[in-house]
Structures are given as C-alpha cells and as structure tokens.
Specification:
Layout (H helix, E strand, L loop, with lengths): L3 E7 L3 E9 L5 E10 L3 E2 L2 E2 L2 H18 L8 E6 L5 E10 L9 H11 L8 E13 L2 E4 L9 E12 H13 L3 E7 H9 L2 H6 L1 E6 L4 E7 L2 E8 L3 H12 L3 H11 L12 E4 L8 E4 H26 L9 E4 L8 H9 L3 E3 L12 H4 L5 H50 L1
Parallel strand pairs: 1-6, 6-11, 12-17, 17-18
Antiparallel strand pairs: 1-2, 2-3, 4-5, 7-10, 8-9, 8-10, 12-13, 13-14, 15-16
Length: 422
C-alpha cells in the first residue's frame, strides 16, 4: 500500500481529520474525512483540554470508520495558529571545511538546525525555519545551492515563532486522544499548499485564510514566503456582532450569517426581511437583510483593513501580481471578493483546495474552502516525505561518488608506481 498521511485541523469552530495518499499521477486522494464541533478552542488556542480531546476523538473516530481495510490512524500532522504567532527575518552563516566537495543537503540541514538554536523571548519557541535565498562566498540570489562549491554558506531565513505553552497544549490534547504528533505546521502555510499554484507563488500573492477565531495571512513572492501574520478576528466575531445587534440567539445568528449574510449591505433589497422564531411565549422577530449585511460589512471591513495593513507592512504591496486569494470558512460569505477589491484595490479570488486533489468519491465535499487547512496539512506531510527521500538519495549518491574517487586515486597511484618501476 502507498504511503498514508493524516492531517488534523484543530480549529476554533471545527476539528477535522483527513487521511490521504498520492495516486500514480502524484495527485492527492483523500481516503476518508471526519469532523466534529470544536468545543475547547478559542481564537486558535486550546482553552479547555478535556473538551478538545473529546472533539479530536470524535473527528478521528469518524475518519477511522470510513477507512477501508485495516489502517489505523496513529501519527498526525497538526496545524497551529493563534495571535501568539509572530515572525522575524534572520541571516545564518555556516563555514564548510572544504570547497572541494559539493554543497550537500547535509550542509543545508546543518545551517537550518543552527537557526533553531537562536535565543528567543522567555516562553517562546521556533516553529518553522524557512530559507528565502542562499549566499555562497558572497554570491547572492541562489535558490538551490546543492551541487555548488564554496566555503562560506549563508542564507536569509523567515523564522516563525509561537508560545511554548500553546504548542504543548495542542500536543497534550493529541496525545490524550491516543495519537502521536508527527509535525506541527503553521496553518496559513498548510492552506497555501492546498489552494495556491507554484505560478501564483512565483508571481507574488497574498493568502488570507478566514477561520472561526483568527484570520491567517501569508505573502509569497518569487516562490518564497516573505511575510506571515495572524489577526485575532474571524467569522465568530461577526456572529457575535449579529447576536448583539439583532438581540437573537448565537446559533440563530450563525444561520442568518451563512444563509442570508452579505459582505456588502447595499446589495440587499430594502424591504427584504427574514423571520426568526421567538423564545417560548414570545412573538417571532423580523430582521432586515440589509441591516444584517450592514453589521457583517462593518466587521468585515475592519478585518480587511488589518489584512491590508500587514500587506503594506511587508513591503511587497506593489510586487504582488497575483493579488489576493481568500480561503477558509469565512470566505464563503457573499460578495466578499468585491469588498476585498474595493478596500485593497487588488484582484481577489476565492481559494478552493482542489489545486492538487485527484479524483475521489469525496471530491465534491472537499472542495469547500473551509477544508483548505486540513488538506494542506496532508500535502505538507507528503512534502516532508519527498524531502527526506531526496536527502537520503543525495547521501547515497554522495557516498558512492566519494568511494569511487578514493579508488580512482589508488589506481592512479598504482599506475605511477608501475611506470616508475619500468
């Protein structure tokens, strides 16, 4: 059986488990999927261990029941987000022993491993070290240094950090649910893998993932990640605004938002109303669709303003040819792309996680933007596998080449001795 990867998306509104494999064409096939309501997560961070463990178990159990055969879910890739996430730029240097040998994956790994030793603020740890470009003996702008010669190997890194406690709480929940964490992955990076093409990343693009508790942002340019941010507002705060503004129950507010809500109030008819059942003994309540959309637009504008600030702050605003891709559950709001384009002046589209998906029975269900992170976590798992395979292959090739050159020297030496004797 081909390699299997499991992604576990622990979100504010839902917990979803995805089991996937690669088909013969290199496309991802989702074998099974399970989801449950997220009861113990607030703004991307675990707020109740027991409730989160129960939700994880329910999602994994549902995914497990849909798997054909004897495969048991045990090792998972987990997403991490939350307002505690931050990023910084750093340059690392690695001095090699000789410039005779080619630069190998082992040299790059040593440079990256050295970055994980950077001193962080108390209570923080490094989640990802992402190389942006390499410099070999002061020669800049190198994307892939493997096979080149040089002594001084440098790189500019995008380093993503987060709170140790937040990561530990996620790991604790996963372990208590009877699972093991293979890798912790920043959620916007996972979402980007699912909805963006390599051409878009090369051209320059902004990924905006609007979840329940947070809005995650990732900016790519020339195929490299340049900026990441987590904004502590998402779809749930819009639901809260509707609940307060219309004085209705939270579940009613959520249903109104999903079914009748729009990001642009002027799109609704003035005389269009929806009737909400009253509590026991009370009259039903009539709510204007235009007023509902006005509440949504006000909060959505605030979220987009935060996103636009991060874009300008990154310094890449004028270089993003691909514009903005909006994904996540919050992206399903009507007229959202028009509001993004109006505020930012950048082309905007909705990102569906079918960029790398092959044909499967669950294809129609999984193409919703709300599943972008979960599918991306599975893709990230396969990326890691491919990297390890390439690294192992490079080590084998390197060792063979070294061995061959050693014997070549002996043969050459023998020939010289033989000629001298004659």
């Amino acid at each position: 059986m081909s390699e299997i990867v499991v992604g576990l998306d622990i979100g504010t509104t839902k917990i979803a488990c995805f089991v996937g494999r690669k088909n013969e064409h290199g496309k991802l096939e989702i074998l099974s999927m399970g989801k449950s309501d997220s009861l113990g997560v607030l703004r991307g961070m675990v707020s109740n261990i027991e409730k989160t463990v129960t939700s994880i178990k329910a999602a994994v159990q549902e995914a497990q029941e849909k798997i054909e055969g004897e495969l048991t879910i045990g090792l998972v890739n987990v997403g991490i987000a939350g307002q505690h996430i931050s990023s910084l730029q750093h340059r690392g240097i690695y001095m090699r022993n000789s410039n005779q040998d080619e630069i190998s994956q082992a040299d790059i790994d040593a440079l990256i491993d050295d970055m994980y030793r950077l001193v962080m603020e108390p209570g923080e740890e490094i989640i990802h070290v992402l190389p942006q470009e390499y410099i070999i003996d002061n020669e800049q702008g190198i994307k892939d240094p493997i096979g080149m010669s040089g002594v001084r190997l440098e790189a500019n890194f995008h380093i993503i950090t987060g709170k140790i406690a937040a990561a530990k709480n996620i790991h604790k929940c996963v372990q208590r649910a009877g699972l093991e964490v293979d890798e912790t992955i920043l959620e916007p990076l996972a979402s980007a893998s699912a909805v963006l093409s390599n051409e878009e990343k090369e051209a320059g693009i902004v990924l905006v993932d609007i979840g329940g508790g947070t809005t995650d942002l990732a900016i790519f340019h020339e195929g490299i990640i340049r900026h990441t941010a987590v904004i502590p507002f998402g779809g749930n705060i819009i639901t809260e605004d509707i609940k307060e503004g219309c004085t209705i129950m939270k579940d009613q507010a959520e249903k109104l938002k999903v079914k009748f809500g729009s990001a642009i109030a002027s799109e609704g008819q003035e005389n269009e109303v929806v009737c909400i059942p009253g509590l026991r003994g009370r009259e039903p309540k009539e709510i204007s669709i235009r007023n509902l959309s006005g509440i949504i637009q006000a909060r959505m504008e605030e979220i987009i303003e935060h996103v636009y600030f991060e874009i300008k702050n990154s310094g890449y605003e004028k270089k993003l040819i691909g514009g903005i891709v909006v994904t996540g559950g919050g992206s399903e709001l009507k007229n959202l792309t028009q509001l993004f384009e109006y505020i930012t002046g950048m082309d905007t589209r909705i990102g569906y996680p079918n960029e790398h998906l092959g044909k499967s029975a669950m294809e129609e269900v999984l193409t919703s933007p709300m599943y972008a992170t979960g599918i991306g976590l599975v893709l990230k798992g396969f990326e890691k596998m491919d990297k390890l395979n390439r690294s192992n292959q490079a080590v084998k090739t390197h060792s063979k080449r070294t061995k061959g050159s050693f014997f070549d020297k002996i043969i050459e030496k023998s020939k010289t001795w033989f000629e001298e004797d004659i």
